[in-house]
């Protein structure tokens, strides 16, 4: 008896068209992956929080940042803080904050997770985007530190795969 291998016909994306083929297994995944792109969020931002001073610290709701992100180039943006009180000589608590970045044409919104130890390290994920980043996705780790001798903050974004 002669045995032959049969190929099962399935859907495949090619140049923004869905074709019947023997190549891919999941047509929904093929269509989704053809439209989605990874947002490379690696970069560096700088900013200075401004707020209303009190005897124990200061209160801010947002603070502006500027810098460079790999996928967007030069950006400006702002942090929308969940915890607006910043004690004297401490860094802002970025737990559950949102970071909105705007480039020349596109913008993205990153949501930061809570940091259990109030360390200067926060995990984030991309939750919204406009233009070319409307269907993009990305996640990473954000680190924040103060510049010695000033109120300026340096924020580093490190993309994580996953």
Would you mind describing this structure in some detail?
This protein is mainly β and about 160 residues long. It has an eight-stranded antiparallel beta barrel. It contains one helix and 13 strands. Strand 6 and strand 7 form a beta hairpin. The radius of gyration is 22 Å and the shape is elongated.
Uncertain segments are none
Provide the gyration radius in Å: 22 Å
Order of helices and strands: EEHEEEEEEEEEEE
Structural class: mainly beta
N-to-C terminal Cα separation, in Å?
Answer: 47 Å
- The total beta strand count reads 13
Number of helices: 1
Determine the fraction of residues in helical runs and give it as a percent range: under 10%
Largest sheet strand order: 3-6-7-9-10-11-12-13
Shape: elongated
The residue-averaged pLDDT reads: 80
* Largest sheet descriptor: 8 strands, antiparallel, barrel
Strand content is: over 45%
Provide a short characterization of the protein structure.
The chain is mainly β and 162 residues long. Helix content is 6%, strand content 46%.
